UniProtKB/TrEMBL annotation:
<dbReference type="GO" id="GO:0030170">
    <property type="term" value="F:pyridoxal phosphate binding"/>
</dbReference>
<dbReference type="GO" id="GO:0004015">
    <property type="term" value="F:adenosylmethionine-8-amino-7-oxononanoate transaminase activity"/>
</dbReference>
<dbReference type="InterPro" id="IPR015421">
    <property type="entry name" value="PyrdxlP-dep_Trfase_major"/>
</dbReference>
<protein>
    <submittedName>
        <fullName>Aminotransferase class III-fold pyridoxal phosphate-dependent enzyme</fullName>
    </submittedName>
</protein>
<keyword id="KW-0663">Pyridoxal phosphate</keyword>
<dbReference type="GO" id="GO:0009448">
    <property type="term" value="P:gamma-aminobutyric acid metabolic process"/>
</dbReference>
<comment type="similarity">
    <text>Belongs to the class-III pyridoxal-phosphate-dependent aminotransferase family.</text>
</comment>
<keyword id="KW-0032">Aminotransferase</keyword>
<dbReference type="InterPro" id="IPR005814">
    <property type="entry name" value="Aminotrans_3"/>
</dbReference>
<dbReference type="InterPro" id="IPR049704">
    <property type="entry name" value="Aminotrans_3_PPA_site"/>
</dbReference>
<keyword id="KW-0808">Transferase</keyword>
<dbReference type="Pfam" id="PF00202">
    <property type="entry name" value="Aminotran_3"/>
</dbReference>
<dbReference type="GO" id="GO:0009102">
    <property type="term" value="P:biotin biosynthetic process"/>
</dbReference>
<dbReference type="InterPro" id="IPR015422">
    <property type="entry name" value="PyrdxlP-dep_Trfase_small"/>
</dbReference>
<dbReference type="InterPro" id="IPR015424">
    <property type="entry name" value="PyrdxlP-dep_Trfase"/>
</dbReference>
Amino acid sequence: MPDDKSNSWEARAAAHTLYGFTDLPTVAARGTVVLTGGHGPYVTDVHGRDYLDANSGLWNMVAGFDPPGLIAAAQEAYGRFPGYHAFFGRMSDRTVELSEKLIAVSPFADGRVFYTNSGSEANDTLVKMLWFLNAQEGRPERRKILTRVNGYHGVTVVSASMTGKPYNSVFGLPLPGFVHLTCPHYWREGKEGESEAAFTARMAAELEEVIAREGAETIAAFVAEPVMGAGGVIPPSEGYFEAVLPILRKHGIAVISDEVICGLGRTGRAWGCETYGFVPDAIISSKALTAGLFPMGAVILGPELADRLHRASEAVEEFPHGFTASGHPVGCAIALKAIETILEGADGAPPLIDGVHRLTPGFEAGLARLAEHPHIGEWRGKGLMGALEAVQDKATKTPFPGHLSVSERIANACTDAGLICRPLGQAVVLCPPFILTEAQMDEMFGKLERALETVFAEVA
Ligand SMILES: *Cc1c(COP(=O)(O)O)cnc(C)c1O
């Protein structure tokens, strides 16, 4: 068949597939990038062109795009037991092993794990668990969920309500009872002359006020990413968790760490809560949990919530919730191998988290160097997640007008140069796979720098 335009992969992609989170003018002008596979940190398109994927797919492909040990584990698992569920008192042996492993690598001395197919479903599940157990324990009014503006927790109805992004208003969300606190981003939210310590104290005071206004007895949980990811890579202000956690504890509000991005090494420790020195009541995991090779999420309950949920479930004879593919044996086998590969080292290789430690100083130095540009307002990040925020005026932190789509243009210029990075608001986000070499990191920053120069020359 002749490869005319109407029969191109780009046209076929546009004809019958709906896009998620896609800038449609960009696609209309440039076409879809249709990919066939990858090698190391690179993905390859239908024309044979390679792109260095500085976003690890969607934060998840931390072992790159052809990890031999993980692929072998998946193949072996499919040959052995290609599918099963975790309902009605049955589950696969791999599911049993993965739960033991997750508790062993968690900050919890004991606990229980519930499996989903995604991070969104894991957050929905967590909220249903809290609603269920509070009701069973005679506190049915304890249902509200506190999150932060710019926090990202997913797209299902409840997890979108938790997400603190204005775009959810197109769905008439959030639902009632989902309360968003100020984003603890000192550079953007700090007031003129306010020190970072004073800013953090103001965040804590706001939390106290919100709890007083809403009523502590109506609030089930505070759910937070240790470092906000999809909100634009926003680490908390200095001392933030130390300031807010005692307030939440005092009011009996459960503390949930959404580790879907931070989890399994991204910030330099197994979990972002370890990087920030706190132990939550539960952890939400997904993305790197299977190094991106299988759709899976997990709610990891610490001992107290696990016991309470167990007791509440016994009282009604079951916890009426679960997904058909929860605890899938192939997904669990891949996750076991991913955890081993990332945290312990598999097949004689050092753990991938060593790569995070090795790369972080150069990654931070590269971001800091690009942030010297007069149109970069700040660089921020933790471990191997970072962002550069474009501004029209550095001194006043004034953003570029939205209609210029500066971050989309930067990302498009990067794509033209064979580099995938993500525009988020006015920021450009980098979160490369943990297997990156120093030479590939130089390639990443070199291509990004040229893209920044091109776009700033056009818009400034
Ligand atoms: C991606 C993400 C989610 C949602 O996960 P999906 O698998 O896309 O549903 C939830 N929380 C955080 C922090 C995320 O980054």
